[in-house]
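Example (one chain per record):
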Amino acid sequence: MSSVVTPVTDLLTEVLKADDGKLTAEAAQKHADAIKAAIDAAKATVPATTTAPKSASPDDAKAARKDVKGDALTALQTAVDALLKAATAGDVAGVATAATGVVTGLVNLLAATLLGAGLPVPTLPGLPKLPTLPSTGLPLPSTASLPSTSTLPKTPVLPQAPALPN
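Predicted structure:
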């Protein structure tokens, strides 16, 4: 994954440091080639993953993905292309929007890499909601059901240690 992250972050760094986010055509092409090669290499290592779960309903089958990491890499390439287009055109507003898309693409790639294997697309809408805590206090055990501490054995006294010489 670092083989993809490094050229993408190099592009982001150069675009954000450039005057008005504008890159020369040569610089943009250099980054485009490096990123495309990294993404193509990463796609070549993506194994075919699962299909729908065994107990899948029709709705689950729609949500199941065959290639979550591959999809994330494709989406990242699309976001990078949009950033390169905006950066070579000198479109400051477009650069800001596209840079956000590239960062989102990197986060999605990380999520797909960590959570791949048949989970929903990692753009968060498909992830399950977190459980909620109960709104009322949980019942505490009554002290009547606890054993008495008077039946516990007493702690033994430690022997005195000799003083250490100075």
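Caption: Confidence is low (pLDDT under 50) at residues 50-56, 60-65.
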